[in-house]
Design a protein that fits this description.
Strand order of the largest sheet: 2-1-3-4-5
Order of helices and strands: EHEEHEEHHHHHH
Distance between the termini: 33 Å
CATH class of the largest domain: Alpha Beta
Number of helices: 8
Radius of gyration: 18 Å
CATH topology of the largest domain: Rossmann fold
Strand content: 5-15%
Number of domains: 2
Helix content: 40-55%
Number of strands: 5
Length: about 180
């Protein structure tokens, strides 16, 4: 049984995540901050909120020296810096199955990327529009937010649908929310 050490900024989210992982057969422990490597029991993987600290880089480097680090991040429109000590990123809204797959991938010594080649093909602006769609904004609201015309938003939406092979706004929302993209 793999031991997962978890730290999430929001207690209710952390509780739900821990319970879901226990139900999947993992032993789950909370991460005590600041970590004490001498007295902390060994772990197989750290699952950390990307908001663990104002500057999480130092903590990530320290923890990655003892076990792989998988980041738990806010929705798709959030930009996270790539960090060579991070083995993958999972979005807060990811289904339990995706989280379990990510953990398995990392425990097998691989990096986890929830971003398929199709999502990687999106331009930065297309990714931004897709993130706003996932947030439930209308085309007019997206246009206002980004300072572009409604016609331009419609063009981005057509391109996104074409690149991702999606039929409607619900499909686009699902693609954005289920990805672990760090757009």
């Amino acid at each position: 049984m793999a031991v997962i050490t978890v730290h999430v900024k929001y207690p209710i989210l952390e509780h739900g995540l821990c319970e879901a992982l226990r139900a999947e057969g993992f032993e789950v422990r909370p991460l005590k901050l600041p970590p004490d490597p001498v007295h902390s029991p060994p772990t197989d993987l750290f699952l950390l909120d990307s908001n663990i600290a104002d500057d999480p880089a130092e903590l990530i480097v320290e923890l990655a020296g003892t076990a792989p680090v998988l980041l738990f991040a806010p929705p798709v429109r959030t930009h996270l810096p790539s960090h060579r000590h991070v083995s993958g990123v999972i979005e807060w809204s990811a289904p339990v199955g995706v989280i379990v797959d990510a953990i398995g991938t990392v425990l097998d010594g691989n990096r986890f990327s929830g971003v398929g080649p199709e999502l990687q093909s999106l331009s930065a602006r297309e990714s931004q529009v897709l993130g706003h769609i996932a947030d439930g904004l209308t085309q007019n609201q997206i246009a206002d937010t980004l300072g572009i015309s409604r016609h331009t938003v419609d063009t981005y939406i057509r391109r996104i649908r074409s690149k991702l092979g999606l039929g409607n706004k619900a499909d686009m929302t699902r693609a954005a929310v289920l990805s672990a993209a760090t757009m």
